[in-house]
């Protein structure tokens, strides 16, 4: 069975070898038909502590690593550029 791959934004990198990734999806409301954004946070394994808050990353489902971690980061998609670092 193929592993699920999701794309999201790193919202926390404070813990050792772990990042918290927020994955957003858009769904249509069943009754009203309005498009709404739903988000979910996943704890993902980051072996080298290389991913920082604000970066867009791709995560892949794995066997459980700990109580909360069942995902690992496979690659960086995009890096958030803040105005202070761009100058």
Explain this structure to me?
- By secondary structure, the chain is mainly beta.
- The mean pLDDT is 92.
- It has one domain (5-86): Beta Barrel (OB fold (Dihydrolipoamide Acetyltransferase, E2P)).
- Helix content is 5%, strand content 51%.
- A hairpin with a 5-residue loop joins strand 1 and strand 2 (18-28).
- The protein is built from 1 helix and 5 strands.
- It is globular, with a radius of gyration of 15 Å.
- It has a 5-stranded mixed beta barrel with strand order 1-2-3-5-4.
- The protein has one helix at 83-86, and strands at 5-12, 18-28, 35-45, 56-61, 71-78.
How much helical structure, as a percent, in the residues?
A: under 10%
- Taking pLDDT < 50 over at least 5 consecutive residues as the criterion, the unreliable ranges are none
Beta fraction of the residues?
over 45%
Q: What is the rounded Rg? A: 15 Å
Structural class: mainly beta
Name the average pLDDT.
92
Q: Main sheet: which strands, in order across?
A: 1-2-3-5-4
Q: What is the CATH topology descriptor?
A: OB fold (Dihydrolipoamide Acetyltransferase, E2P)
Record field, number of beta strands:
5
What can be said about the biggest beta sheet? 5 strands, mixed, barrel
Q: What's the name of the CATH homologous superfamily?
A: Nucleic acid-binding proteins
Order of secondary-structure elements: EEEEEH
CATH C-level class is: Mainly Beta
Just name the CATH architecture.
Beta Barrel
Please, how many domains?
1
Overall, the morphology is globular
Number of alpha- plus pi-helical segments: 1
Task: State the end-to-end distance.
Answer: 46 Å
């Amino acid at each position: 069975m193929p592993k699920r791959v999701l794309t999201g934004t790193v919202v926390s990198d404070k813990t050792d070898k772990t990042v918290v990734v927020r994955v957003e999806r858009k769904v249509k409301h069943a009754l009203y038909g309005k498009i709404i954004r739903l988000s979910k946070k996943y704890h993902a394994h980051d072996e080298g502590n290389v991913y920082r808050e604000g970066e867009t990353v791709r995560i892949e489902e794995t066997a459980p690593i700990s109580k909360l971690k069942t995902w690992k980061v496979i690659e960086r998609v995009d890096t958030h550029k803040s105005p202070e670092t761009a100058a």
